[in-house]
From TrEMBL:
Family per similarity comment: Belongs to the class-III pyridoxal-phosphate-dependent aminotransferase family.
Any GO MF annotation of the entry: pyridoxal phosphate binding
Cofactor: pyridoxal 5'-phosphate
Signal sequence, start to end: none
Keyword Transferase: yes
Protein name, UniProt field: 4-aminobutyrate aminotransferase GabT
Organism per entry: Cupriavidus yeoncheonensis
UniProt-listed GO biological process terms: gamma-aminobutyric acid metabolic process
InterPro entries given in the database record: 4NH2But_aminotransferase_bac, Aminotrans_3, Aminotrans_3_PPA_site, Class-III_PLP-dep_AT, PyrdxlP-dep_Trfase, PyrdxlP-dep_Trfase_major, PyrdxlP-dep_Trfase_small
EC number: 2.6.1.19
Alphabetically ordered keywords of this record: Aminotransferase, Pyridoxal phosphate, Transferase
Length: 429
């Protein structure tokens, strides 16, 4: 079968057999992948600055991850931790407890997806506080399950006609200095929520992404986060840091809360935790984590041994190959290139993000209140035509985001900036 017909056959089969609600950002089919590159079934190479939507911080098919999975596969591939324990689960939990909690007593539970981690963090917080309320932020993304959709602060495309949604969830504005809404404004809005919708003693937890992912790579800012930490401590509210997209080097530190200089009560992790295998977890203060009674937490595939082995290899790579340092170097290179593009093209309203987790927002007439989603999509398509994969984000879908592996070579980063430059010029005409 010819390569071109293989692509056409796959496209036809996808249309016939896959539910239309599953959107694929790029009309290609990946045949193989390595590092920061993928090759489609036609043999064409692309720089991959999506990385499975922030999953592949160590790149595709890292040899150390592959070897760890192969070795574990020959021992045990699945047992279900609720049936019988195994060493890699416990070893990984111990390492994450140290990395997140430092010298404090922390505990971990493993799950399968980011949405599961979020749901279980909420369960744990409610059990600990014996209170129902959960506060999330507008523009946040926390998953596609019923509770995940409820917590998510965007209507399109996630909520559609899928309601009614879970109860006792409240949304409050997130800092957005580009649109003139500061961290102090966000704190005042939270105080207003306490005064008008739910008293602090009925709030189990506040959950937020420290840098909103799908919401547009908005960073909460360390000043806001420190004041939020003080507020939650004052009221005894559990602070949940959703590090599913920001975790494992994405912001230049292992976790975004470290970059911000705060200590959350619970941290949700997933995506790049296991180098491409499905694994998530909740890591938190031991007294809070132990609030649910035995049997209240778990899942059939939760903490699968293959994924745990992969995650241990990922953590080894961070320790042995100075990946947080490389992430900062990558972020400096990308940020410099993106700001140069912003100076060149008036269609770029702002550059935002932390470390190598960066995005460009496209607007009309240099106006923050005139998002240009069409321009952003045309840039994405032009980048693909020139060999670079990127995707969009933002409440109005007018941001182009970069989620390259943190060990991406700097020459590849410069190539990506050059492709973005050509793509924007092409779309401008």
């Amino acid at each position: 079968m010819a390569l071109e017909s293989t692509h056409n056959d796959l496209a036809a089969a996808r249309s016939q057999h896959v539910a239309r609600g599953v959107v694929t950002a790029h009309p290609i089919f990946v045949d193989r992948a390595h590092g920061s590159r993928v090759w489609d079934v036609n043999g064409r190479s692309y720089l991959d600055f999506v990385g499975g939507i922030g999953v592949l911080n160590v790149g595709h098919n890292h040899p150390r991850v592959v070897a760890a999975v192969k070795q574990q596969l020959e021992r045990v591939s699945h047992a279900a931790f609720q049936v019988a324990g195994y060493d890699v689960y416990i070893e990984l939990a111990a390492r994450l407890n140290r990395l997140v909690g430092g010298s404090e007593a922390y505990k971990t539970v493993f799950l399968t997806t980011g949405a599961e981690a979020v749901e279980n963090a909420v369960k744990i917080a409610r059990a600990y506080r014996n209170a129902p309320g959960i506060i999330a932020f507008r523009g946040g993304f926390h998953g596609r399950t019923l509770l995940g959709m409820t917590l998510t602060g965007m209507s399109t495309p996630y909520k559609q006609n899928f309601g009614p949604f879970a109860g006792d969830v409240y949304h409050t504005p997130y800092p957005d200095p580009y649109r003139g809404f500061s961290g102090d404004d966000a704190l005042r809005a939270l105080d207003d929520l306490f005064a008008t919708q739910i008293a602090p003693d009925r709030v189990a937890a506040i959950i937020l992404e420290l840098v909103q992912g799908d919401g547009g790579f908005l960073a909460a800012g360390s000043d806001f986060l420190k004041k939020l930490r003080e507020l939650t401590t004052k009221h005894g509210i559990v602070l949940i840091a959703d590090e599913i997209q920001t975790g494992f080097g994405r912001t230049g530190e292992l976790f975004a809360f470290q970059e911000a200089g705060i200590q959350p009560d619970l941290v949700t992790v997933a995506k790049s935790l296991a180098g491409g295998l499905p694994l998530s977890g909740v890591v938190g203060r031991a007294e809070i984590m132990d609030a649910p009674l035995p049997g209240g937490l778990g899942g059939t595939y939760a903490g699968n041994p293959l994924a745990c082995a992969a995650a241990l290899a990922v953590l080894d790579l961070f320790e042995e190959e100075r990946l947080t340092e490389r992430a900062r170097e990558l972020g400096t290179t990308l940020r410099g290139g993106l700001f140069a593009l912003a100076d060149k093209y008036k269609e770029i309203g702002t550059i935002r993000g932390v470390g190598p987790m960066l995005a460009m927002e496209f607007v009309r007439n240099s106006d923050p209140h005139q998002p240009d989603a069409d321009f952003a999509q045309r840039v994405i398509d032009a980048c693909r035509d020139d060999g670079l994969l990127v995707i969009k984000c933002g409440v109005h879908r007018n941001n182009v985001r970069l989620l390259a592996p943190v060990n991406t070579e700097l020459d590849d980063a410069r190539e990506a900036i050059a492709i973005l430059d050509r793509a924007i010029a092409k779309v401008r005409g």
